[in-house]
Write a structure and sequence with these properties.
This protein has about 200 residues and is mainly α. It is built from eleven helices and no strands.
């Protein structure tokens, strides 16, 4: 078949037969993988691959396939989506924190304001007790915060990290003073400074 759309449709139909009628999920996974390579922008093969990866517990194969597809020239939104899926699988299914971090960082290189990647890195660094990296993510989230209450809450977290986790009281003091600059009667900031 010369037409990519026809080839994609035939591969999808073949994979469905392999999975539903022949009960051969692994063969279906391989065929859906070929369909994905024909048209990475079509979401149908991705949805089927992810469902099969969960059912067959072949997460490593899914990650390998998505990494291969990332070698092609793809729209930024799709590239981010594939990296996010890779990162989530690496972290939650395979337990590969470093590979998950790399994939989330790849997303932030494309879109520095991508909230899902920032939130996931915040959780990853908290679990791993990587305080300096967590601090960097919190500072980025503070920059992106939409309102004063969000910025203040994140600032207190940053102050806490400086004070309790990194033992840098002068940096913590600066953070709490900056909070007071915006709200001079902030009781929590005053208590924090008094404690220091």
């Amino acid at each position: 078949l010369e037409d990519a759309g026809e080839r994609l449709d035939m591969l999808l139909r073949k994979a469905e037969i392999q999975d539903q009628r022949l009960a051969d999920g692994q063969a279906a996974f391989t065929t859906y993988g070929r369909a994905l390579q024909v048209d990475p922008e079509d979401e149908r093969p991705r949805l089927k691959l992810e469902a099969l990866a969960e059912r067959l517990e072949c997460w490593g194969e899914l990650v390998t396939l998505y990494r291969e597809v990332l070698g092609a020239a793809l729209p930024m939104e799709l590239t981010c989506s594939l990296h996010l899926t890779i990162a989530k699988v690496e972290d939650e299914e395979l337990g590969h924190a470093q590979q998950a971090e790399e994939a989330y960082r790849a997303v932030l290189e494309l879109d520095p304001e991508e909230r899902q990647a920032l939130d996931a890195l915040e959780q990853l660094y908290t679990r791993a007790e990587q305080w300096e990296r967590l601090l960097e993510i919190c500072q980025k989230k503070r920059e992106l915060a939409q309102d004063a209450a969000q910025r203040e809450a994140i600032s207190f977290r940053i102050g806490y990290l400086w004070e309790e986790m990194l033992g840098n009281l002068s940096e913590a003091t600066e953070v709490y003073r900056a909070i007071l600059d915006g709200d001079e009667v902030n009781g929590q900031a005053l208590e924090s400074l008094d404690r220091l």
